[in-house]
Each structure stands twice: as C-alpha cells, then as structure tokens.
Amino acid sequence: MIYSGKLINLNAGPAALPDQVLQQAAEAVLNFEHTGMSVLSIPHRGVHFNKILEESKALVKELCWLDDDYEVLWMHGGGRLQFAMIPMNFLGEHGTAGYIDSGNWSADAIRHASFYGNVEVLTSTKKHGYQLLPEWPEHISADLAYVHMTSNNTIYGTQWDEIPRVDAPLIVDMSSDIFSRAMNYTNCSLFYAVAQKNIGPAGATLVVVRKDMLQRIQRNLPPMLNYNEHVAEKSVLNTPPVFPIYVSLLMLRWIKSRGIAAIEEENRRKAALLYDEIDRNPLFSTSVKKEDRSMMNICFRAVDERTGEMFNDFCTETGIVNIKGHRSTGGFRASLYNAVSLEDVKYVVAAMQEFETTNK
Ligand code: PMP
C-alpha cells in the first residue's frame, strides 16, 4: 500500500475534524477575524463571542429543524455531567424515570440517575453483551418523569433507526450521531451531545431543551447545575469554553455547507463499504446484529489475537490510527464520523484487503 503521509484517524472521540475547520481554527488562534486578538483571548461577554454564540445556536436550530419552542445551550462537563443533571433537574425524590439500557453509556446514565430518584430500566440488552438493541417496550407510562435513551451506542456499535414518540418526555443522548443523519428531533423534550465526535473538539457539550420541560425542574439546585439558570444567562453563566464553542461553530458551518442529506448519504455509503468488507474478509468478523449496526462506530474483530495484533501494526504502518476497540470490549472500532471521508474508508478497506492477501 502506498501511504501518502496523511493519517486516517478513526478515533471515537476526540474525533478527526475536517482540514478546512482546523485551518480556520488555527488562523483564529493567531488573529481572530482581523481583530488582532487571538480567539483564545476574546472576552466571553463581549460582542465577538456573543456573535459566535448567537450564530452557533441559530445553526443548531436550523440543522435540527427546530422552532423557538427550543433553547440551545453550550455547557461544560461532557456527557457525564448531563447524566447527573438530567435526574437532578427532572427526577423528583418520589418520581420514577424510565431508561432504555442499550450500552455502557446508557448504563452509566442509569447509575447517575439512581442517586436522585427511582429508576425503571424499561428494556435492556446487557445480558447479550449489548451486541444488539433491546426490543422497544410495548407500553411506556405517561407518568414517568422522563424516558432516557442513547441514539447511538459508541462502544458496542449499535444505533437506533429512529427517535420514537413516547407519551412521557423523551431525553436522548445523541453524543455519537448528532448531525450524521436526519432525525426526528422534535420527538425530544431534551437532547444533548458532547462536542468531541460530530460537532467539534472536547470541552463543550450541546444541550437542546424544549421550553415546557424547563417548567418541570424539581429541586432547588446551585445555579451551575440548574438548566433554567443556564438559559437565563444565555450559556454565559460563568466563563464558557470559548475556543471549543468557536471550533464547533466552524464545524456547524461546514455541516451546513454540505447539507445533512448529503452527509447522511455519504455516511450510509461509508458504513456499507466497511461492513461489506468485514462480512467478506475471512480474517475479520463482527457479532453486532445486522439490523442494529451503527453507521458511526463500526466494531469488529480479527479471527484470533495474533492476527489482531498484526493488523493493528499494519494499520499503524499504513497511516490508519486509533482503530482499536474500547478498552472494555477489545477488538477494533472504526469511528466514521462526518469528518472521515468516503475516500478514507476506501483506503481502510483496501488496507484490509491487502492485509488479507499478505496473511493468507
Ligand atoms: N454518551 C455517549 C454516547 C458517549 O459516546 C460518551 C463518550 N464517548 C459519553 C456519553 C460520555 O462523554 P464524556 O466523556 O464527555 O463524559
């Protein structure tokens, strides 16, 4: 294989960003929009950052087809803080929240919720090692404080086709597939996503909440942990992660310029190409159920440990990096977020084919 020198980074997050976005971000670090200031040093309550905030929030609404019923927030603390804030805000001491347990991140969200109230696991595939999605529950009570689900399971490589409609308020962790395809965002009362996969760099978390949900806040909470306070202060309750939000804005512009429909089509082609190779190549396989396979995180294994080690070395030599599976599962995981191109995936497939030829 001829390795051109450009690395193909398949990390699950912090994920690869498009060259164009990196270039713009680098320029802004030196001189932000000809102001003579670095974007790292602009005041967070000043006119420049206010414009960044306003444009980024408007773009999120536009890309999710949302109207003014929704508030867009940029927050700190990653997915884990949302796992805690959701029950803190919406689960009263005597209430019950329903959780769909489809992977490690869902399970961690459940663990966090159990500190604050009753949790009902509505359905789970834990006993199947999360290699498939659970059956959607036949009945979900409208009396639940909320229902929480994870749209894409980053570690196990399964993904729900749709965001369903439920009678209780629906909260969705979209950390690893937001903006990768058309989704029914309006079925959600709240959705959130860490930036470091499809939105931008680590350090910012996007939270989108329907205004009626904000009236359901149950507890007296310190301001930093209360969604209402973040809404009232328009995401500048304290010093926000200015640079990650700025780079996220550059990504949102990039996503808009490509269009969600075109991005989705390419993501489908990328995933199909790689799954076809995994299914065909005798050196690799996946145990993820076919109908439930993720377009974003493609998990697979080599036939045996030795072949796996050799393939990992071969990837490093050919410029394919961060393809190892999560530490809890082992094997391989190719994360094909939006910034990974169809050409990149073709290169990975060609590498798998060459590895097969030389290791028969
Ligand atoms: N939810 C999902 C679906 C994730 O993939 C991750 C991280 N990979 C998280 C939550 C946790 O995010 P953080 O590390 O920012 O807490």
Summary keywords:
single chain, 360 residues, alpha/beta, seven-stranded mixed beta sheet, three-stranded antiparallel beta sheet, binds 4'-deoxy-4'-aminopyridoxal-5'-phosphate
Describe the structure.
This protein has about 350 residues and is an alpha/beta fold. It contains 10 helices and 14 strands. The protein has helices at about 20-30, 45-65, 80-90, 105-115, 210-215, 225-230, 240-260, 260-280, 305-315, 340-360, and strands spanning about 10, 70-75, 95-100, 120-125, 145-150, 150-155, 160, 170-175, 190-195, 205-210, 285, 295-300, 320, 330-335. A 7-stranded mixed sheet has the order 2-10-9-8-5-3-4, with helices on both faces. Helix 4 (about 105-115) links the parallel strand 3 and strand 4 (about 120-125). Helix 1 runs antiparallel to helix 7, helix 3 (about 80-90) packs across helix 4 and helix 8 runs parallel beside helix 10. The longest helix is centred in the C-terminal third of the chain and has 21 residues, at about 260-280. The protein is globular. 4'-deoxy-4'-aminopyridoxal-5'-phosphate binds near residues 78 and 150.
Determine Rg (CA atoms, Å).
21 Å
Q: Provide the β-strand percentage band.
A: 15-25%
Which oligomeric form is depicted? single chain
Count of individual helical segments: 10
* Biggest sheet strand line-up: 2-10-9-8-5-3-4
The ordered H/E elements are EHHEHEHEEEEEEEHHHHEEHEEH
Helix content: 25-40%
- Cα-to-Cα separation, first versus last residue: 17 Å
Bulk shape: globular
Roughly what is the average pLDDT, rounded to an integer? 97
User: Which structural class matches the secondary elements?
Assistant: alpha/beta
